[in-house]
User: Fold this.
Amino acid sequence: MHRNYGAATDDSIPAKRQYCEQNAPSESTVKPRTALGCSREGHSKIDVSIILPVHNASSWLQECLQSVLEQDFHGNMELSIFNDASKDDSGSIIEKWTPRLENRGIAIVTSGHNSIQPKGVGYAKNQAVSQSRGKYLCFLDADDVMMPQRVRLQYEASLERPTCIIGCQVRREPEGSTERYTRWINGLTQSQLLTQVFTSHGPTVIMPSWCCARDWFDQVGRFNEGGKGVPEDLLFFYESLRKGGGVSRVDECLLMYRYHSQAATHSVLEDTIWYHRVTFLEERVLSHWASFTIWNAGKQGRKLYRSLSPANQKKVVAFCDVDENKIRKGFYTHEESKERPKPKIPVKHFKEATPPYIICVKLDMTGGGLEENLCSLNLKEGQDYFHFS
Assistant:
């Protein structure tokens, strides 16, 4: 039940979720069931709650729960499951596994509903968090598999960074699927976890690898429950950054991140993601710049320009490119503008342009050409340029 971004690329990642109408009537709601005689009231003695939303996950759920069972974490651990109207055997699988997990010393709390339609991944995650008691939250999707050391290592990292979202490196299943995206997930430097938050890939640490303090989750707020079409993980990620939160990553592969075609039924519209990315870019970066250059005089660069507020459009001093045909034209005319005369933005070779830049060329798609050009200018990412690709 997770989402990835980058729908415009050849190896784009479909959304791994089912959506619903948020206001679907609930036919029956299962109240939280807490195992091991643990009280839902009073002081929590649970160190980590694994947050597991479930919807029609019977094909993968046993492997997922086995990975919970095999965690080498020695603190007090809880598994909080919310079954979002599954119509397959997910419920019976959860019942079957409950005593095995209890015998391992893992507290279990389960609830759900059997409405005609699921209420969505944001709702399911919120419900699982609300019924849990752990001081730290470790998010997991029912079609993914944790490595045995995941909870332990991310818990230790979270203790040191209580206002951070902690991620990890991942391996893709099947191997070789979404290669560019997987390289991006695993290859970002610590500083790039913050500087590359505007790209079409989405959060720089993927949602099913998140671990964070409950106190920080509560401060950021709940996931958006708008259902179909809402990128609730991206919105939460941006809100965490707005409130001063950090992003970090355990640089070990702690999650098997599954890719499967059955999960591609629905996805967030590219235009929706684009809108949130532009809004966040204007808020976090462009509001602090007096002027800037858009790197790419082609389709994506012009689209960004047209998407900017009028005030930020006026800050664009030039487009830059390596394409001689675009440069030869000399300028880009904003035909949709109501201004008279219509704005004409110069198009320059990148060596003649002036930083700072917003880069609208996709990473890892030019045979290293973009990266070499940036390197030749001795620029600092996060100061002289940001990627918006």
Summary: The radius of gyration is 23 Å.
